[in-house]
């Protein structure tokens, strides 16, 4: 089970306790009424807890141990500055008489630990009672039969098939599965599998085909770093992951419906469209006037890495932002084929949260994605998380060579994907994220948007 408490938890509790203590002591020193002191005590304590929690547990701080150490040093400096100001303005130390309030400073964190331990322990037991007792901190552990079922693969169909559930596209005929009034088409490839010599290559379009395929199982999830509690840990992973899923309500209407394309959240290192929380069937059940689409794209070292300084790397110029190129390829397939499923290619709306939202903003600024979507919902996009220059991605490539004991691209290409996944797991703190290359992504995203790069796209921007 994942650790219930860390040094971060203690720091939040400790600093909050200081807030309660000083929030009471300072007003008392200033002669405030006791009731006002109590109000100030709780106000400062709660405020500090909220602020410190957001800082300490932010993605940026948690990404690297050095960031956490720097944060604690800054917090210490803030306290020392406050002590200096107190001595200058109030002619007293913040620590004066604090011995009498020792219970505030030490007792409350300890009490908080005990209370939170009981609460978290109760919640974990309750969740495990519903979802099963997982190992290594994974609480969403399905039964063995369910694991086997979720890992079934689509197969070509050579005999009879239900033509009412079949849709002919430019790249093949796909036979979906009906769930009450919803038809789901799962695991449809939108590009050639980037395997073998196509590893770290830009996605290549599929040839036109009249072959018939099942579309009843999710395609493999992208190979990814697995964190504690990862929902997709039981779903098969593969480099051959460039698939999408379509859910549409069964009705007799001949008019084309608006299309909603979901960009899954992932930090660009994990996640996928097979996540049960992203189930299109549930969405269309409640919004039958929409055609819902989700898709996979390459993540981590398979999707965002710069090999320009590796011998042979000049043959892999697109490796820097492959995940974004996959997204563009998916949108192009949707644009060309969604009408066959009853979707309107001129009314495509993209939706994403966090890294999904960041991807949407980047594509909106890119000339390569021009005209692929009409509207966009982007919630909590963090453009500042994108690398300004390829230097960081080049460092990831060097670390990958060191971890795999290779020296050239030829050697990397020959490695089994499992070896690369193990290496990525060890290097997960080396963030593999998009880079402003001045080609696919403008060097100055804000300037590009200001100059009208996203003109013609209607936006809804969400800020937490």
Explain the layout of strands and helices.
Blueprint: H1 7-29, H2 34-56, H3 59-63, H4 65-89, H5 102-131, H6 144-150, E1 166-169, E2 172-175, E3 177-179, E4 182-189, E5 212-214, E6 243-249, E7 257-263, H7 280-286, E8 291-295, H8 300-303, H9 322-337, E9 343-353, H10 355-365, E10 375-379, H11 391-404, H12 409-414, H13 417-426, H14 445-450, E11 458-462
Parallel strand pairs: 2-5, 7-8, 7-9, 9-10, 10-11
Antiparallel strand pairs: 1-2, 3-4, 4-6, 6-8
Helix pairs in contact: 1-2, 1-5
Q: TL;DR?
A:
With about 475 residues, this protein is α/β, with parallel strands linked by helices.
Task: Work out the number of β strands.
Answer: 11
CATH superfamily of the largest domain: Alpha/Beta hydrolase fold, catalytic domain
Helix-and-strand structural type: alpha/beta
Q: What is the CATH topology classification name of the largest domain?
A: Rossmann fold
Q: Give the class-level CATH name of the largest domain.
A: Alpha Beta
What fraction, in percent, of the residue positions are helical? Answer: 40-55%
Total of DSSP H or I helical runs spanning 4+ residues = 14
Q: Count up the domains.
A: 2
**What form results from the Cα inertia axes?**
globular
What is the overall pLDDT average? 84
Strand order of the largest sheet: 3-4-6-8-7-9-10-11
Q: What value does the Rg take, in angstroms?
A: 26 Å
Order of helices and strands: HHHHHHEEEEEEEHEHHEHEHHHHE
CATH architecture of the largest domain: 3-Layer(aba) Sandwich
Main sheet makeup: 8 strands, mixed
Distance between the termini: 30 Å
- Which spans have pLDDT < 50 for at least 5 consecutive residues? 1-5, 133-140
């Amino acid at each position: 089970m994942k650790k219930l408490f860390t040094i971060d938890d203690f720091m939040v509790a400790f600093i909050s306790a200081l807030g309660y203590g000083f929030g009471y002591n300072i007003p008392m020193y200033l002669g405030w009424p006791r009731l006002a002191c109590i109000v100030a005590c709780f106000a400062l304590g709660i405020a500090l807890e909220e602020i410190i929690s957001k800082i300490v547990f932010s993605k940026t701080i948690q990404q690297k141990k050095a960031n956490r150490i720097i944060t604690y040093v800054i917090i210490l400096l803030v306290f020392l500055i406050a002590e200096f100001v107190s001595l200058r303005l109030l002619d007293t130390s913040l620590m004066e008489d604090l011995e009498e309030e020792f219970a505030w400073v030490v007792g409350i964190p300890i009490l908080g630990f005990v209370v939170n331990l009981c609460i978290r322990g109760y919640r974990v037991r309750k969740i495990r009672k519903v979802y099963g007792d997982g190992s290594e901190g994974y609480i969403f552990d399905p039964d063995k039969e369910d694991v086997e079922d979720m890992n079934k693969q689509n197969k070509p169909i050579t005999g009879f098939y239900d033509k009412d559930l079949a849709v002919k596209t430019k790249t093949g005929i796909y036979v979906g599965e009906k769930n009450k009034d919803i038809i789901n088409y799962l695991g449809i490839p939108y590009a050639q599998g980037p395997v073998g010599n196509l590893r770290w290559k830009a996605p290549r379009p599929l040839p036109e085909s009249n072959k018939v395929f099942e579309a009843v199982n999710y395609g493999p999830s992208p190979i990814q770093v697995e964190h504690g509690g990862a929902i997709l840990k039981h779903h098969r992973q593969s480099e051959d992951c460039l698939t999408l899923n379509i859910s549409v309500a069964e009705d007799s209407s001949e008019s084309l419906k608006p299309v909603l394309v979901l960009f899954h959240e992932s930090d660009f290192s994990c996640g996928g469209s097979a996540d049960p929380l992203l189930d299109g069937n549930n969405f269309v059940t409640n919004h039958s006037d929409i055609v819902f689409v989700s898709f996979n794209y390459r993540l981590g070292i398979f999707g965002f890495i710069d090999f320009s300084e590796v011998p042979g790397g000049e043959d892999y110029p697109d490796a820097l932002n492959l995940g974004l190129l996959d997204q563009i390829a998916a949108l192009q397939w949707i644009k060309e084929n969604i009408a066959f499923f009853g979707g309107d290619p001129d009314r495509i709306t993209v939706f994403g949260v966090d890294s999904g939202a960041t991807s949407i903003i980047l594509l909106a600024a890119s000339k390569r994605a021009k005209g692929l979507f009409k509207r966009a919902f982007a919630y909590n996009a963090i453009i500042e998380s994108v690398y300004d220059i390829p230097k960081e991605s080049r460092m990831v490539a060097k670390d990958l060579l060191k971890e795999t004991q290779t020296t050239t691209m030829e050697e990397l290409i020959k490695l089994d994907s499992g070896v690369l996944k193990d290496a990525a797991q060890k290097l997960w703190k080396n963030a593999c994220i998009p880079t402003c290359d001045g080609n696919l992504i403008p060097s100055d995203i804000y300037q590009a948007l200001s100059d009208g790069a996203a003109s013609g796209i209607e936006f809804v921007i969400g800020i937490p």
